[in-house]
Specification:
Layout lengths: L4 E5 L3 H12 L3 E5 L3 H8 L10 H7 L4 E4 L2 H6 L3 E4 L14 H8 L9 E4 L7 H11 L6 E4 L9 H6 L4 E5 L2 H10 L7 E4 L1 H32 L3 H8 L21 H14 L5 H25 L6 E5 L14 H11 L3 E5 L15 E2 L3 H5 L4 E4 L11 H7 L4 E4 L6 H6 L3 E4 L10
This protein binds uridine-5'-diphosphate-glucuronic acid (UGA).
Length: about 425
């Protein structure tokens, strides 16, 4: 088995998981980041993000996994450089590649490298531009590969080691072979292709997943208007093997660091070539409206939010993570405050949050504390523990037993039986007897 020395640039969700998993596979890995506190914490044995199994993996592989702030030190002994820096959206909707270019710049003179592999999500065509930049920096002999990431937060370590597929785009067979070998020990098939196709697979896969979610949310809205139950509909639709049951959970919309950004990036990529990707535009708009529609429905039920207290249950963009990037919770909290409500929020993992809307909201230690005296509670993140709380106690401590379940986590009949008015997405509202 070939084992390599790898420098991973970026100690975020993707870089840390990639670094730790490559170390587990037997490679020697140095992870480089520009954030001093982050590297200091990692060196002291801490882990700056919550990701299932990551802390254990880092602890188990300390002999092969180190951390540095110094780009030159990271590159000095490396054979392969993995680029895992973030590519946020620019005002034009394009991906901001400045962090990638900084990494490429720091490789100037590193002729000893065998390959540069980009894991960050990039517009199609980026690999060709990086290749040209490497060539003019005298790195013609260094291979280039695109190896996009398909791991989902919260299960990233598992997804890395047991993927549906590993996508590798490379223009020369040696680089293809090398990057494939880096994955020896990974339990999943390898899909080999050219660089632009690998870049497109990533954007297309996320766009289709986002499309499934927005489609389901639109069906849910029609269910609300017609008396159908979206959960029953989706269950049977998903039994068709051509469609499958996945990513058809209705709710207050998708968030996170990937779907919102990647769907905008794909739309911008199409737009830049003069093509209007209308389907993607609709997917994005449906998702933007989803949390706003929830607030409007609740407002109609409650007679406006002025002077009301609302409990917001869940802040993270999905359960199992402390990540709040593009989380619907921020839109929901802002809308509530703009309509005159005070917001009491709870989340089991998300740490202290600065800035609005959070600095004007009250953080609570338990769901029940958040619901004390509240005129309504909104489930924004489907944290499993919300299933098991003493809802009869919640009904007793709330000013009004009203729950808007933005993730269809609970059973309408059960909540009705406890005396709640229970609203959810794509299902008939259960009203407490007057
Ligand atoms: C997503 C993809 O699932 C990964 O394959 C991909 O690698 C990653 O983006 C990325 O591009 O790096 P992630 O954003 O971590 O992963 O989370 P998901 O579990 O996909 O959830 C995304 C959002 O969609 C969440 O807000 C979730 O609540 C929402 N969602 C998901 C729904 O509203 N309905 C569903 O049926 C599924």
């Amino acid at each position: 088995m070939v084992r390599n020395r790898i420098a991973v640039f970026g100690a975020g969700y993707i870089g840390l998981v990639t670094g730790a998993c490559l170390a587990k596979l037997g490679h020697t890995v140095v992870v480089r980041d520009i954030q001093e506190e982050r590297i200091a914490l990692l060196r002291a044995g801490g882990v700056p993000i919550h990701e299932d199994g990551l802390a254990e993996l880092i602890a188990e592989n300390t002999d092969r996994l180190t951390f540095t702030l110094d780009a030159q030190e990271a590159v000095r002994d490396a054979e392969v450089v993995y680029v895992c820096v973030d590519t946020p959206t620019t005002p034009s909707g394009d991906a901001d590649l400045s962090r990638i270019w900084q990494v490429i710049k720091s490789l100037e003179g590193a002729r000893h490298l065998v390959a540069v592999v980009v894991k960050s999500t990039v517009p199609v065509g980026t690999g060709a531009r990086i290749r040209a930049a490497m060539d003019s920096a005298g790195l013609q002999a260094v291979g280039y590969a695109a190896n996009p990431e398909f791991t989902a937060e919260g299960r990233a370590v598992h997804d890395f080691l047991h993927p549906d597929r590993v996508v590798i785009g490379a223009d020369d067979p040696d680089t293809m072979k090398l990057v494939a070998q880096l994955h020896d020990g990974v339990d999943g098939p390898i899909a080999e292709m050219d660089v632009p196709s690998a870049e497109m697979v990533k954007l297309a896969a996320n766009a289709l997943l986002a499309t499934k979610i927005s489609f389901t949310n639109e069906i849910a809205t029609i269910c609300e208007a017609t008396g159908a139950d979206v959960e029953q509909v989706v269950r049977a639709v998903g039994m068709d093997h051509r469609l499958g049951p996945h990513f058809m959970r209705p709710g207050v919309g998708y968030g996170g660091s990937c779907f919102p950004k990647d769907s905008r990036a794909l739309r911008a990529l199409a737009g830049n070539s003069g093509y209007s990707f209308q389907l993607m535009t609709s997917v994005i708009e449906v998702n933007d409206l989803q949390p706003r529609r929830a607030i409007q429905r609740l407002s109609d039920e409650i007679g406006g939010f002025q002077g009301r207290s609302v409990a917001l249950l869940g802040i993270a963009f999905k359960p199992g993570t402390d990540d709040v990037r593009e989380a619907p919770s921020a839109i929901i909290a802002s809308r509530l405050q703009a309509e005159g409500a005070s917001v009491r929020c709870w989340d089991p993992l998300v740490g202290p949050l600065a800035g609005e809307p959070w600095s004007s909201a009250t953080r609570c230690r338990t769901p029940l504390e958040a619901m004390a005296g509240a005129d309504a509670a909104i489930i924004v993140t489907e944290w499993p523990q919300l299933r098991d709380i003493a809802w009869e106690q919640a009904a007793a401590v709330m000013a009004r037993p009203l729950v808007f379940d933005g993730r269809n986590l609970l059973a309408p009949q059960d909540m009705g039986a406890l005396g709640f008015t229970y609203m959810s997405v794509g299902r008939t509202t259960v009203r407490a007897a007057a």
